[in-house]
Write a structure and sequence with these properties.
- The chain is mainly α.
- The chain has 5 helices and 2 strands; from the N terminus they run αααββαα.
- The chain is 73% helix and 2% strand.
- It is rod-shaped, with a radius of gyration of 47 Å.
- The two termini are 91 Å apart.
């Protein structure tokens, strides 16, 4: 690759030393300002000409750089134009995921709840058959005979109260 001229690779817009302003004075030296402006425009024109010459000498690098810049601009404009649609799409996706999770929760919990209700109904039926009712231990039942054997004939005691509360699921 040929070496590039210094003006192209290192842009320099410094003015000659004799044109630099030493200090700001109360009265403007219009000739000096015009001279500075002319020097500035001359340097800018020279830098532009050097840039144009470099572009003409290296069209492949310019094309690649231009394509990258164009792609970045097109991508930025596309994202800006699609931002509302992207937000709506993300919102819809989040709602869909939430609905699927809710459905999965329901599909998992329905069988579990069904099993728990069935087991509870079976246990309540067994307790009722044994003589444990919501109002207490039923007389002449397996529960009353067990209570009499363990705690004596008192049906208003601790045993019957706790069993009654258990039968009522409290």
């Amino acid at each position: 690759m040929p070496a590039l001229r210094q003006e192209v690779t290192i842009p320099s817009f410094s003015f000659p030393a004799q044109l630099e302003l030493q200090q700001f004075h109360a009265s403007f030296d219009w000739e000096r300002i015009k001279e500075l402006f002319r020097a500035f425009t001359r340097d800018m024109s020279e830098a532009a000409n050097n840039g144009v010459a470099w572009v003409k000498e290296h069209p492949e690098e310019v094309k690649n750089t231009g394509l990258v810049c164009a792609a970045v601009v097109v991508l930025a404009l596309t994202l800006y134009a699609l931002a509302p649609a992207i937000c709506l799409l993300l919102g819809a996706v989040i709602k869909l995921v939430f609905a699927v999770l809710k459905l999965l929760h329901s599909l998992v919990m329905i069988p579990i709840e069904l099993v728990l209700r069935t087991v509870t109904a079976i246990i309540n039926a067994i307790l009722y058959c044994l003589g444990f009712t919501p109002s207490g231990v039923r007389s002449h039942s397996v529960a009353s005979h067990g209570q009499s054997a363990l705690y004596g004939p008192n049906t208003n005691g601790f045993f019957s109260t706790m069993q009654s509360a258990g039968a009522r699921r409290r």
